[in-house]
Amino acid sequence: MGIVIETSIWEPSSSVFIFIFFSSFLLLSLFPFYLSKHAPTTKSSAFSDHPFSSSSPRFQLYFLLLYFLASVLEGLWSVYGEFELVYYGISKEDTVTFMLIGFGAALFVGSLLGLVSDLIGRKKTCLVFFILHLIVGILKMVAPSPSFWVANLCLSLATSIFSFSFETLAVVEHDKVDSKLGHRQDILNETFWLMTFFESASLIGSQVIGNWMVGGNLEKGIGSPSIAATLLAILGITCMSRHYDGTTKIMTFKDYRMSFSVYILGDRRIWLLACAQACLHFSIAVFWILWAPTLVADGREVFLGLIYPCLLGARMLGSTVFPWLINASLRTEDCLTCAFVVQALLLSIIAYDYEEIGVLVTQFSLYHACIGLILPLLARLRTMYVPNELRGGMISLSLAPANAAILFILMQRGYYRTIENSTMIVFAAVGLFMAAGCMYVLKREAFKGDMKEEPISTFKD
What we know:
Strand content: under 5%
CATH architecture of the largest domain: Up-down Bundle
Number of strands: 0
Structural class: mainly alpha
Order of helices and strands: HHHHHHHHHHHHHHHHHH
Largest sheet: none
Shape: globular
Distance between the termini: 89 Å
Oligomer: single chain
């Protein structure tokens, strides 16, 4: 008598998505009521009383739409990234080299792009971001067998620009009006968490667009996302060219070097902030490299296409918690310390305990909910400590240690097989504990001097 073994592919329940959607909706809809009851009357909020009465809310709306567009571009290439490499004959060994070149470009070139952005202007850097995506889109549309090495370099540099340029542009543009209106920090806080919310939503949207354009025939439709990326890149270039005059006052290289040495390299608080940013970036990179292998360990079958939006939905939910914490008068450093510790504990459990898939997905979702909270909190701290004119350079240089660490572990794991996946996750967990320690020390440093809510500016009119 034969035995039939039935196999099933695990996928999250539809109730998970309903829970994430309604939780985010409730947090957003109840926040104006909470604000009217508990917040000081001197504060303004995007939820309460500023329809388009000033140029700043108009810019905020326009900027978020532009950021949404850029985030869709960032996510569109990754929908069928690994399958596309296999389709065009890239071997597993070459895939490791492919990743090393990408992180190498981010380390040796991307780390300097923030400095260049501060010197040439944020508008031009954002234009370069869209131009790089346009080059990749045209290359994949025109070439029958596109050069993935060139595309990889362009996309790695575009991702490096994405990590700092839009945030810096938002802060500088808001400063032109909000510093005079007296509610600059409130508007920026709203922009920061909305950026995280929109980015997560747009990454889900890019998956929908990619699947829709490819359709049911992967072989014939594998190049279809390139068409969408090209059109979106052209739209982004058009928007950037039309709506910003780019007449920001820029420092000379000599003045910039002196200011960077004094305000960034000479400030211990910014070193702590940069270390926390690097640790977070490293842990996120390790997670996205290993999340799928962890889920499918021991031959388990998982519907990864449904888990991906679940994780991003959790990040959206985490970002909606940010305005509640800020208006509850909690210290930013305390919130970050708790969030980093929670993330580190989650990764520590994942590293040594291969549990059932449902438990793992729950831990992954909690990890991403913490990311959704941490990203706007770190941006808020940068606004408090980092001069606007030096912000891009500070962010890009803070990511250099993380990219170097990723290069090292990829080389050890990919070529020499001396590091296991669990060890990589442990390194990420240790980094998050270090980030929590940095936030604790930063809080103590804040009590030693006068912590200013307004950022330092190297320009005095």
